[in-house]
């Protein structure tokens, strides 16, 4: 090796871990905290589709009308004879089923319908369980801290139906539903459509016919959504009812679907704005055979935080530079394919959950380097070498690769089983070097099989 000056401090250690959040961790290098973008998480579609679903807790509030009528929690109440859905648990369950059906089939992706990964359920408690709260006319509504509040209000001077909310809000208002169901209506699927629409607004989605919609021109045409002329303000009243065949939830038509761009918008907002009513555990196990593959064939800079509970694969021709924090799930690996490169430039790779991840596996094949750590990079909390030149292949195919090149300078290795294991299946020159690095904890430092230089 050209130069080896590793400071070895074998000290006791504590595993550093956190549930999914959006902060820079306290023991990150100083240059991370200076980058404001490292306080946010930026997502790709493949990352979102590999996540477990996020569960949104809802509380349903039903207001009595001016005649003393209301939905009921009593299965023997005579009012139910007028309409089965006047029994509040029946209505709430039907609404939740429809909301979840639309979310499970409502993503427009690659010419097919996919899953948004969002689910709704009723919060615990209430007047008859399942997040149901009944009110007399004029009684003040409760604010349920750990739920998004759905308030069914009666506005006799405003005879229309529909809902409203605010960007980033926790409350959705729905008007004059009781009147419809007292009259024999049972259109709970329209209620679900409206609630999904308003929920989108609470998570910062704009109307699809709004000219300033950030997805306009990406995978929606706001002019087409509004019959030829988009609306200049996000909440201006509009006569745009189903002007395209996309049936977008955030439009005013059939309201069934979200675009891929909207998937990114809503998930990025939810992940970066944690709320008590959003239940999401990225450490939860999902399908194990999924990899997150980055195959752009370009130089990508990750200047936002990332979290993965899947193996991450960087395909040949793609270079990824990490400038912020990447959190890896238990036993997960970053795989650097032949011809790909990974650079950690002042960033940090650590464990996502309360167990260790399994390090970086390298195929090799670049003449200059395959993996590079620099500028106070931190690699920590692995149950395997931080970097291994053993390609993740079975015998005898594994012999086709090896002799990967590592450059590590001015970097820190905390609680890694090894810094690196080098492997060449026959003695070959190797230009790797490790200089001015620190190892805290860990069982071994460097192991070398057949790499020369």
Q: Between the first and last Cα atoms, what is the distance in angstroms?
A: 5 Å
Task: Tell me about the largest β-sheet.
Answer: 12 strands, parallel
> From the helix content, strand content and strand pairing, which structural class follows?
alpha/beta
Helicity, in percent? 10-25%
Residue runs with pLDDT of under 50 for 5 or more positions: 1-36
Briefly summarize what is shown.
The protein is of the alpha/beta class and 453 residues long. 15% of the residues lie in helices and 29% in strands.
Sum up the structure in keywords.
453 residues, alpha/beta, 12-stranded parallel sheet, 7-stranded mixed sheet, 7 helices, elongated, disordered N terminus
What does this structure look like?
It contains seven helices and 29 strands. The protein has 453 residues and is an alpha/beta fold. The strands form four sheets. Strands 1, 13, 14, 16, 17, 19, 20, 22, 23, 25, 26 and 28 form a twelve-stranded parallel β-sheet that branches. Strands 2, 5, 6, 7, 8, 9 and 11 form a seven-stranded mixed β-sheet that branches. A hairpin with a 6-residue loop joins strand 8 and strand 9. The longest helix has 18 residues, at 88-105. The protein is elongated, with a radius of gyration of 27 Å.
SSE topology sketch:
Layout lengths: L3 E6 L20 H4 L11 H6 L3 E10 L24 H18 L1 E3 L2 E3 L3 E5 L9 E4 L12 E6 L8 E3 L6 E5 L1 H6 L5 H15 L19 H4 L32 E2 H13 L5 E2 L11 E4 L4 E4 L3 E3 L2 E4 L4 E4 L2 E4 L5 E3 L4 E5 L2 E4 L8 E3 L8 E4 L3 E3 L4 E4 L17 E4 L2 E3 L3 E12 L3 E8 L5 E7 L1
Parallel strand pairs: 1-28, 2-5, 2-6, 2-7, 3-10, 7-9, 12-15, 13-16, 14-17, 15-18, 16-19, 17-20, 18-21, 19-22, 20-23, 21-24, 22-25, 23-26, 24-27, 25-28, 26-28, 27-29
Antiparallel strand pairs: 2-11, 3-4, 8-9
